[in-house]
Design brief:
The protein has 235 residues and is an alpha/beta fold. The protein has six helices and eleven strands. It binds flavin-adenine dinucleotide. The site of flavin-adenine dinucleotide has 18 residues, from strand 4, strand 5, helix 2 and strand 11.
Length: 235
């Protein structure tokens, strides 16, 4: 039932007014849109965003909603690279008064239970976790709900670092900023040895990163139903 509900909402369409953009780090930008009253999502879900202020080929892309509904705006964050695609160039050209379409929210990448949880983010894969962590901060993390974020960024840009540090200081959410895959695997193994299949494992990042971590978890006997993943195509 829940799978159906998470998929069927793709048919919900919203028109989002552009508010502003800001630079998170070199080549990484957040875009903020007004949230319509009837639009909500589970923190961690994504939408399909379509450009319509100019004609471009392949005008739609999936993006995690990087804000929680409690923030009252829709925010997406993306990497432009040296040669942005037409879609990303069009995002950079947005001006106040223009809008973008969103289908969704979609997907089951969100917290359903209060059991121990490991979030594993690779680079730009931090976006859904920002939303989930902001939601947990707003709701208050329940006593005994162990939440740990492992955030790997070999380029050490660590977008959102200041706000994540602040949340880690004020809540029981534990965050590790990691620069190497070896450190990441060590942290994952340590979490597995404490919680094994009594925990939920969420992974987001490039397709190759998500698939190698999934294989690592499975080879350490973590069952498929305890693993949720968002593989960002195009990275
Ligand atoms: C659930 C989900 C959430 C995402 N969230 C974010 C996010 O928060 N931030 C973010 O920056 N990106 C996110 N992405 C990725 C995003 O949709 C874009 O693919 C990415 O940003 C690259 O876009 P682009 O316009 O730069 O390049 P594109 O022109 O889309 O693609 C770059 C390269 O990847 C290849 N490619 C693109 N899509 C696919 C595909 N489906 N299968 C195989 N190859 C493909 C293209 O052929 C091209 O060579 C998410 C993807 C998914 C599925």
């Amino acid at each position: 039932m829940s799978f159906l509900k998470d998929s069927i909402s793709i048919f919900k369409k919203s028109e989002l007014s552009y508010v502003e953009r800001y630079k998170e780090s070199d080549g990484v930008y957040s875009f903020v849109f007004e949230k319509q009253n009837d639009l909500t999502w589970n923190a961690g879900q994504h939408g399909i965003f379509t450009i319509h202020h100019k004609k471009i080929k392949n005008a739609a892309r999936p993006f995690s909603v990087a804000s929680s509904p409690t923030e009252g705006v829709v925010r997406i964050t993306t990497k432009m690279g040296d040669q942005p695609s037409d879609f990303k160039k069009a995002l950079l050209e947005l001006e106040k008064g223009m809008s973008i379409k969103m289908s969704g929210p979609v997907g089951s990448f969100y917290l359903k239970e209060k059991r121990p949880t490991l979030f594993i983010a690779g680079g730009i894969g931090i976006t859904p976790f920002r939303a989930m962590i902001k939601q947990l901060e707003a709701e208050g993390v329940e006593n005994g709900h162990q939440v740990r974020l492992l955030y790997l960024d070999s380029g050490q840009s660590f977008i959102y670092k200041d706000e994540l540090d602040e949340i880690a200081n004020n809540t029981s959410i534990d965050i590790a900023f990691l620069e190497t895959r070896d450190d990441l695997y060590q942290e994952i193994d340590s979490f597995i040895s404490s919680y094994n299949n009594n925990a939920a494992y969420f992974i987001a990042g490039s397709k190759s990163m998500v698939s190698s971590i999934t294989n690592h978890l499975k080879s350490n006997t973590i069952q498929k139903q305890n693993i949720k993943k968002d593989a960002f195509m195009g990275y």
